[in-house]
Design brief:
This protein has helices at 8-20, 38-45, 67-81, 96-107, 125-133, 157-170, 188-203, 222-234, 245-257, 285-298; strands spanning 24-27, 31-34, 54-60, 85-91, 111-116, 138-141, 151-155, 176-179, 213-214, 239-242, 267-269, 280-282, 309-312, 315-317. A six-stranded parallel sheet has the order 4-3-5-6-7-13, sandwiched between helices. It is α/β, with parallel strands linked by helices. Residues 42-50 have low confidence and may be disordered. It has ten helices and 14 strands. The chain folds into two domains: 8-136, Rossmann fold, CATH 3.40.50; 157-282, Response regulator (Rossmann fold), CATH 3.40.50.2300.
């Protein structure tokens, strides 16, 4: 920074802008890296020919730090590389304004397809429509959508949550909480998981207790999580299903600070399979990647399929955070 006489803030902004443009990607705890062959590929794009590569944009709301997302990206890229295509990453930091800005920029570029992990349920349909009108495929992942002309590739959230609940029921748990940090009303994927939980309880002949459902956490501090655990324990809850593994991990940490043993005193499970010690649902991201790659490649041919939804099977992964009910 001294050599080029720029401030730390300016350097950080420059790096962030390069991430938005898909030139850099960041790995948490490691650093920022240049996307492989990005400059050679962009040089080819600036000189159109029959061998011009097809560029597919992937908008993520966060910097990926788990191997499952990294493997998914690698799998998609390998698949489309076989037909002279490549994936360009754009990190939106969960910011809708940045997401919208990137989509507007992509409308001005020669993009062959869009893969979007939306940061909210309002996924800028007005802008996505403009890609569709140009015959550019748009794939929404992670969140279920009902728009018929968009592709939708996601895990079977309902079956996944049903499997988690059935697993806890098989261990003797009857008072099971569903715990969501995000608003269930504003997050369709979490609403589907709640649906799977409710289905499993009904199938087991159990009634739903409203106090066992936390539809949105208003305070995400450890002290708040501790209070939730105290309240749930006092109402007889012996197991908790969390919206994702990150929430499950923080609940387990709160239990540790309260001298509660997981799973001896309470069983906790998550969704997404991000941790080695948390019972969870594997979303089979590599199978998602296969379907996404197929959609992108088919879009380059005259025989492309009509937009459709792909539900990828959910796999139960039993680990050390769940055990038999002690009560």
């Amino acid at each position: 920074m001294e050599e080029f006489q720029v401030s730390r803030i300016t350097a950080k902004r420059a790096i962030t802008e390069l991430e938005y443009q898909g030139i850099l990607y960041r790995k948490r705890g490691v650093g920022s890296f240049v996307v492989r062959d990005i400059f050679q590929r962009r040089a080819k794009m600036s000189n159109p020919s029959s061998n011009t590569p097809a560029v597919f944009a992937f908008l993520l709301p966060y910097t990926f730090k788990e191997n499952n997302i990294f493997n998914m990206i690698a799998k998609i890229n390998t698949k489309i590389n076989s037909s002279n295509g490549f994936l360009s990453l754009f990190i939106t930091d969960g910011n809708r304004s940045k997401e919208r800005m990137i989509l507007k920029q992509l409308l001005e570029q020669n993009i062959a397809g869009i893969l979007l992990y939306p940061s909210s349920t309002d996924f800028h349909l007005d802008l996505l429509n403009q890609f569709v009108f140009r015959n550019i495929p748009v794939i929404i992942s992670d969140q279920p959508v009902t728009t018929p002309y968009l592709y939708n590739v996601l895990c079977d959230n309902i079956t996944g949550a049903r499997k988690l609940t059935e697993h806890l029921l098989s261990l003797g748990h009857r008072k099971i909480c569903f715990f969501s940090e995000k608003s269930i009303a504003c997050t369709p994927s979490v609403a589907e998981r709640l649906g799977g939980y409710l289905d499993a309880l009904r199938n087991a002949g159990l009634s739903t207790e409203p106090e066992y459902i936390i539809p949105k956490v208003t305070d995400s501090s450890e002290e708040s999580f501790q209070q939730y655990i105290r309240t749930l324990k006092s109402s007889g809850v012996t197991a908790i299903i969390c919206e994702n593994d990150g929430v499950a991990y923080r609940l387990i940490k709160a239990c540790d600070s309260m001298a509660l043993k997981v799973p001896k005193d309470i069983s906790i499970c998550g969704f997404c399979n991000d941790y080695d010690n948390i019972t969870s649902i594997c979303q089979n991201e590599e199978l998602m990647a296969e379907h996404i790659g197929d959609i992108f490649l088919e879009s380059l041919t005259p025989d492309r399929n009509l937009p459709h939804k792909v539900l990828v099977p959910a796999t139960l992964c039993v680990k050390g955070s769940t055990g038999e009910c002690a009560e």
